[in-house]
Amino acid sequence: MADKVYKSMSFANPDLPGYDIIQKISVALGLAGVLVMMLACLDIQNIMTPGYLTSSLLLISVGVILFSWRTFLVKHEGIRNDGIWQRSLTNRGLWGWILGVLVTIFYVLLYWFPALIGLSGSGNTGLVAFFDPLSMLLKGTPASQWFVYGVLYTVAIIIFGIRFIWKYRHNRYQVFRTCSVMFFQLGFAFLIPEFLQKLNYPYNDMKNMWPLNYYFFDEWNIKALLGSGSPGFWMLVLGVLMIFIISPVLTYLYGKR
Length: 257
Hints:
Number of domains: 2
Radius of gyration: 22 Å
Number of strands: 0
Order of helices and strands: HHHHHHHHH
Helix content: 55-70%
Strand content: under 5%
Largest sheet: none
């Protein structure tokens, strides 16, 4: 029997690890969810329903979570970075550049050309309209480009947070930190501000302090807070306390990690 000759002297497997059938199915599920969202960008009316929105977000979430489970939980605990320098998506290859360009285009449209993704004062279309049912449920008004971004960002934090927890499940600090990020993003950064708007109070992400919240001291924001009565006043007080007392004390006790 002829011996196989290895060019690499590494003790680790030099071959690019492949994907098994479960991982391939999970990728297909995630891409199916993305496809539904892309069809919504074309303003196809038949899919502008709560059911399709739910299906799209669920397919993406299940795809990522299933892939992560198969990647990490079937192996022993420990950091798993196998193949990241060999795959096009994670080593500045073609797929990595394509993803980077698409994300950059999305942010450009989000900040400067929201009408191109469907934002309209006379009635949303396209991607923004796709999220109208969820926006009406949470705050009683049609979606904006920032609501779309908030939903996608929150979903990403949750599903990739689960992936991160499984990957670093041997490290208690990493698990605790990730759970904290997931909790505050879902509750304080997304749900609570949306519910506040439904109650006719100003949008306020209580953990997002100045200077991250760069408009906190702008005149229009101060007037909006003070004009909403006692709740708005205490939002303003909390914002000031976050800057000068709460954040410095927490930084002194725990550092910035």
